[in-house]
Amino acid sequence: MVKDCVAMGFAITGVLAIALFDYSYRDYILSWYGQLSRDEGQLYQLLSEDFWEVAKQLRQRLSHIDVVKVVCNDVVKALLSHFCDLKGANARQLIKKTVHYQF
Questions:
Q1: What is the pTM of this model?
Q2: CA–CA separation, 15 and 47 (whole Å)
Q3: Burial call 65-95: b when 16+ CB within 10 Å, e when fewer
Q4: For the chain, what are the domain ranges?
Q5: Tens of pLDDT along 32-52?
């Protein structure tokens, strides 16, 4: 059962990756490149190979990340820092408004 879910997850991920590549190619590359060249899919093939190589390397790098540490430590620290900065910015803005209204 778990293996089936994992296999289905990889299949869905593959389909989404293909769709992402196809839409990106169509909307961001073919829109201008199609008018410049008549290579009949050669660029598509080359970029597709590069895309899958990038995906493979990204997957390999992500497999070495300690997800628990990232979620429980790094994200919590980043959120704490963000909200402390936000609180400080709000306090400074309130002080500026108060000083501005005194004149």
A1: 0.56
A2: 17
A3: eeeeeeeeeeeeeeeeeeeeeeeeeeeeeee
A4: 1-64, 66-103
A5: 887 888 877 899 999 999 999
